[in-house]
Amino acid sequence: MASADGKLEAIGMSTQAAARIAEIRPIRARVGKRNQLLVKITTEDGLFGWGESGMSSREGSVAATIEHFSDFLLGQDSRQIGRIWQECYRGQYFEGGRVLTAAISAIDIALYDLLGKRLGVPVYQLLGGRQREFVPSFATTMARDLPQLKEDARTLIDMGWDCIRTYPGSFDDSTVFEPHKTLARTAEELIAVREEIGPDVQLGVDLHHRYSVPEVAYFCALLPRGTLNFLEEPIRCESPEAYHTLRNMTEIPFAIGEEFASKWQAAPYIEQGLTQFMRLDVCNVGGFTEAMKIAGWCERHYVDLMPHNPLGPVCTAATVHLGAAVPNFSWAETRQSPVEKLGFHDPRIFPKQVEMEGPVYRVSDAPGLGVEVNEDVIAEQEFTHLEGPHLTRPDGSVTNW
User: Fold this and answer.
1) Is the pTM of this model over 0.85?
2) Pair type for strands 21-31 and 34-43
3) What is the distance between the alpha carbons of residues 139 and 334, in angstroms, rounded to a whole number?
4) Which whole number is the average pLDDT over 289-298?
């Protein structure tokens, strides 16, 4: 007759076998105006979870990395999420880098979705529980002239948004980028928008890391105090030293981090006070496992998260669960406002996704992420590679997109 201990051991072994990873499948598809790279992880018992990579226009590289990871992840216990993260990151000589962590992000998110479903709890419970009833968002206007900027801002404010982001008027369809001719115009537009919306609405501008230190310093000098609440990604993030120089040249708060691929990359920006809003992307920085570590580090330095969230419902759900579970949070990026028609959250493809009410995301209590994917419909979406613009200066030299 089997002992009680023997029965428990048998049950434990059976559960572990059921939770073993049976398949990891990257899915590339065109959704709306962009491509999305989803990952579906299925275990031996048929349960599955969804993840997403955020590395737009390099989906092929990330998908290939996920397939490499599959070679040693198949058969592993899907519940050992932290250990799997470490093995994916450290299991090769050349660890780290954006492609690797974008792949790790998708896998990590899918494993959390899977574990939440297995335990019957939403992902935020796995991250320590919900700390807020809803997750506020900021909305973006891509308007290219002042009348449309004002109209978009008024539309968003009337619908409840209290934080709005703009882009410079120089961001048009041209492949020639000349910042010197547009910075003054952008400053004038922002001053006019601030006058239009008043002091109570938060206003930011995304410079998309296209500029140099002196260009950004000149731009900031054109703005009266109080015009901007944040300046997003003004220069590239490879050099914290350059950001330190820029930080000493303006008092406007910085929102930096969507380029970060790890806690190590975020470290100097947190420790040296180089960012006032952390723009990490849970689909690029290493999934929930890495994002929660960075969030705690930010809390130590009184830095709030303002997550990058530019893609589809899986990315959005992950961002919302992260936002629900951390104390230091400002706004999540949304690309679902009434002034943007991007098609990233197509309900035919994603029949169940995080609900948005006006400017806020409601935190789902469904097990896992709370997202469903119609695999028949997504299989019908043709994937064609989308290359980002390759910009040049007027003299023909290459510059940042």
Assistant:
1) yes
2) antiparallel
3) 6
4) 98
At a CB cut-off of 8 Å and minimum separation 6, what does 393 contact?
176, 177, 178, 399
* pLDDT of 1: 47
| Residue matched to tokens 């299991």 | 91
199-210 as b/e: b if 16+ CB within 10 A:
eebbbbbbbebb
* Angle, vertex CA 281, rays to CA 382 and CA 363, nearest 5: 90
* Residue type at 280 in one-letter notation: L
Largest CA distance in the chain: 85
Q: Is the predicted pLDDT of residue 50 greater than 90, yes or no?
A: yes
Distance CA 364, CA 354 (A): 6
Query: What does the chain come to in residues?
Result: 401
CATH entry, 125-368, from 3.40.50.1000, 3.20.20.120, 3.20.20.70, 2.60.40.10? 3.20.20.120
Q: Which CATH number fits domain 4-124: 1.10.10.10, 3.30.420.40, 3.30.390.10, 3.30.390.50?
A: 3.30.390.10
DSSP structure string for 335-379: S-STT----TT-TTT-SB---EETTEEEPP-SSBT--B--HHHHH
What tens digit of pLDDT does each residue of 75-96 get? 999 999 999 999 999 998 888 8
The yes-or-no verdict on residue 192 having pLDDT over 80 is yes
Q: Which helix (H) or strand (E) holds 196?
A: helix 183-197
Average the pLDDT over 141-150 and give the result. Answer: 93
Tell me where in the chain the CATH 3.30.390.10 domain(s) lie. Answer: 4-124
pLDDT tops 60 at residue 118: yes
Instruction: Provide the pairing of β-strand 230-232 with 202-206.
Output: parallel
Question: In which residue ranges of the chain is CATH 3.20.20.120 found?
Answer: 125-368
Using alpha carbons, select from 265, 270, 259 the residue that is nearest to residue 308: 259
- What's the mean pLDDT in 213-232? 97
Q: Output the six-digit token pair for 136.
A: 């506020």
Rounded-to-integer distance, Cα 338 and Cα 342, Å: 10
Identify which of 298, 293, 249, 294 has the alpha carbon closest to the alpha carbon of residue 273. Answer: 298
Q: Where are the beta strands (DSSP E) in 328-383?
A: 332-333, 356-357, 360-362
